[in-house]
Amino acid sequence: MDNKKLKLYHELACWWHLLSAPEDYEEEATIFKNILLQSCPNLKTLLELGSGGGNNASHLKKYFGITLVDISPEMIKVSKKLNPECEHIIGDMRDIRLGRVFDGVFIHDAIMYMLTIHDLRMALETVFVHCKHGGCVLIVPDAFKETFSPKTSHGGHNSQIRSMRYLEWVYDPDPDDSTYITDFAYLLREADGSIHIEHDQHINGIFSRREWLENMKSVGFQVRIVPLEHSEIESGLFNAVLGIKP
Ligand SMILES: C[S@@+](CC[C@H](N)C(=O)[O-])C[C@H]1O[C@@H](n2cnc3c(N)ncnc32)[C@H](O)[C@@H]1O
Q1: Can you tell me the distance from the alpha carbon of 165 to that of 189, in angstroms, rounded to the nearest whole number?
Q2: How far apart are CA 71 and CA 90, in angstroms?
Q3: CA of 50 to the centre of ligand 1 (A)
Q4: Engineering a disulfide at 145: which of 6, 139, 203, 208 sits with its beta carbon 3.0 to 4.6 angstroms away?
């Protein structure tokens, strides 16, 4: 099982902001900014790994100088349009080495594409080598093993010329392994009114709180899990992994 051919991040990347619009991220980006500044009041430079279409960055860039890394050249192109003032780099969070350190490192939902403990561990090592001593790391997985529940949701947006609606179906066929599945159905309406439908299956990784804490510690971070409050998410289900590099 792998995610090499995900349509959303490759041939459909130009639809990303109609699935997930920058304005939808304002509340959570404010939460992330506040935690980062509480942990590291002098934080000025931030590395985001798996930055996607740059939605978080479109808010965080008002406070920090951000370098954005994503494995998909198509998503980097989408993000560059939204965030032309940010540095963009194509790379894999498991092995990219930029040869410099940042005041903070941030990974949002892209961490869900680490499918094994080995992958997770590689991403955490990347985070560690790019974080300065005394700097902080904020990682926001969609769920831990303990907080996962199957769900179905839908959404989408209109632009002046095109529109998209999607259905997202999240389920876990084998709760004993480290993955679950997100199936997407996309309805894509073109400027001439024609509609086409695409299906995309994303495999996501999921780990327990203990696995998160153990791996963050063994990479070298001081770590804690921080509950977050968001107006649209049930209390207790939104959590971040917050680390400090001693
Ligand atoms: C859900 S999107 C992230 C959206 C982002 N939170 C935003 O603000 O727009 C997930 C991203 O993770 C990226 N990704 C998946 N595996 C990756 C890896 N190994 N290294 C870097 N990026 C990765 C995908 O290309 C995709 O752009």
Answers
A1: 9
A2: 5
A3: 4
A4: 208
Residue with tokens 């995309």: 200
Q: Which atom of ligand 1 is nearest the CA belonging to 69? A: 21
- 83 pocket-lining for ligand 1 (C-beta < 6 Å): no
List, for residues 33-81, the tens digit of each pLDDT value. 999 999 999 999 999 999 999 999 999 999 999 999 999 999 999 999 9
CATH class of 151-204: mainly beta
| The dihedral formed by the CA atoms of 6, 237, 220 and 46, expressed in degrees to the nearest 10 | 60
Residues of the chain with CATH 2.20.130.10: 151-204
- Is the pTM higher than 0.90? The answer reads yes
Comparing C-alpha atoms, which of 241, 211, 209 is closest to residue 109? 241
- CATH of 7-143+208-244 given 3.90.1300.10, 3.40.30.10, 3.40.50.150, 3.40.50.10070: 3.40.50.150
Q: Is 113 in the pocket of ligand 1 (CB under 6 A)?
A: yes
